[in-house]
Design goal:
There is one protein chain. It contains 19 helices and 6 strands. The strands form 3 sheets. It has a two-stranded antiparallel ribbon with strand order 1-2. A two-stranded parallel sheet has the order 3-4. By secondary structure, it is mainly α.
């Protein structure tokens, strides 16, 4: 067995190259400012670091070492000799890796927030374009009450808005500059941590050096946020899968997001939506992996923490892909508004409206509820819908019924009556679109 490979992290923490170099440049500038190293040495080091970053981004070099920190320092030494060793003054890999992760995550959170904003915009657009489409709303996946498709879709928009808020709140706790904690006890050199924080765009510095190097809460919080976001993505995906089935027929995926069966030529499988659900389980696992890794660690730094990166990076990359796929998938949906409207005929979804009608005539709601339940049972036995009932049949159940019941049986009217704040009326949905 290759023992060096077992302890090495370079294969995956190479992703932190840019952040490690930017952090090192800021650190070296601070060392020169504080007269801990000479300005001439600082210029040599920072110029060489900039050239390493440029060569790395242009794929001219391959960094090699146990981890990204030693790999960069090794490359630096090749270019400028022993002076490269001055770069590591007043710091440790323990505070260095936390810096890299925080810089990386600050950038990635803002990218993910941008992708969430894009998905919300797509949902708003399809909602606006189908503002008047009526469909059955569901509880327990059973037809319940009529609702606007736009109202239903916007529910996901509000979920995503909360997701964005959670990430931006997480950003506040990521935005803490750790460099200067050194191995765990700080350093004897008179460094200026606030200078480094300003150079790197951090809003504040960490308060306790022991906590600084042993803290992975910011990653766990981020992975928790990723899990909630992916759960929302999975719920949307599952709903779209159900709606695309022959039994529902509410929507149709564009061809690029479906695949055929290997033996059944008629099939149009929603594979992309299914994979969104599958990858959600992976993101849950990443959270659990880091939580388990951290659960029994004494202070301060422990090598176990090296294992935070793979699940961390995996969740970032998968979540970005999932948000992109879902945005494109929803943008390309074909809405079958006629099928949605006709589905309202199933399940007696105006039952509550009829009960409310009786309440408006003076009956207690519970009494009205019992009357409508009897009407539903009668319709089932008679194989009728509410619209099939004659006035005489209505009056059998209550003398409160009159010709005005016909207005209640209009889906559009039923929608428009839901005027409570946040309800499914046309005006309420328009207000939501503006606010979201």
């Amino acid at each position: 067995m290759d023992l060096k490979k077992f302890v090495s992290s370079i294969d995956y923490d190479v992703k932190l190259t840019k952040y490690d170099i930017l952090g090192s440049i800021a650190h070296v500038n601070m060392l020169a400012k504080c007269k801990i190293i000479s300005k001439s040495d600082a210029i040599k080091i920072t110029n060489a670091l900039s050239s390493i970053l440029k060569d790395f981004e242009n794929k001219k070099i391959r960094l090699q070492g146990e981890d990204i920190h030693t790999a960069i320092e090794s490359e630096l030494k090749k270019r400028i000799g022993e002076v490269a060793g001055r770069m590591h003054t007043a710091r440790s890999r323990n505070d260095q890796v936390v810096l890299d992760e925080r810089l990386y995550l600050k950038e990635e959170i803002l990218i993910i927030v941008g992708k969430i904003n894009n998905l919300i915009s797509v949902i708003k657009k399809i909602s606006k374009n189908n503002l008047s489409v009526i469909m059955p709303g569901f509880t327990h996946l059973q037809n319940a009450q009529p609702v606007l498709l736009s109202h239903w879709l916007l529910a996901y928009g509000w979920m995503l808005k909360r997701d964005k808020e959670r990430l931006l709140d997480c950003f506040k706790r990521v935005d803490v500059m750790p460099l200067g904690a050194a191995a765990f006890a700080g350093t004897e050199f008179s460094i200026d941590r606030n200078f480094v924080a300003k150079q790197l765009g951090f809003s504040r510095i960490s308060e306790n050096s022991v906590d600084t190097v042993s803290d992975r809460d910011f990653i766990i919080e981020f992975l928790s946020d990723c899990s909630i976001i992916s759960m929302h993505i999975s719920r949307i995906a599952e709903e779209l899968i159900i709606w695309s089935s022959q039994q529902f027929g509410f929507i149709e995926f564009s061809n690029e997001f479906t695949t055929g069966s290997s033996i059944m030529p008629q099939k149009k499988n929603p594979d992309f939506a299914e994979l969104l659900k599958g990858k959600t389980g992976k993101i849950y696992g990443n959270l659990l992996s880091v939580l388990t890794m951290m659960k029994g660690l004494p202070l301060s730094y422990n090598r176990d923490m090296q294992e935070d990166k793979e699940p961390f990076f995996d969740s970032v990359e998968n979540l970005k892909d999932m948000l992109d796929i879902l945005s494109k998938m929803i943008a390309g949906l074909k809405i079958n508004s006629k099928r949605m409207y006709s589905a309202c005929e199933n399940g007696f979804i105006l039952a509550t409206d009829i009960a409310d009608y009786l309440v408006s005539k003076g009956l207690p709601f519970r009494t009205a509820h019992g009357i409508v339940r009897n009407i539903v049972n009668y319709c089932i036995k008679s194989k009728k819908t509410f619209g099939d009932l004659s006035m005489l049949e209505w009056e059998k159940f209550s003398t409160k019924f009159n010709e005005s019941i016909s207005v209640v049986l209009n889906y559009k009217k039923a929608i428009e009556k839901r005027k409570s704040y946040g309800g499914t009326s046309f005006q309420s949905v328009k207000n939501q679109l503006k606010k979201l």
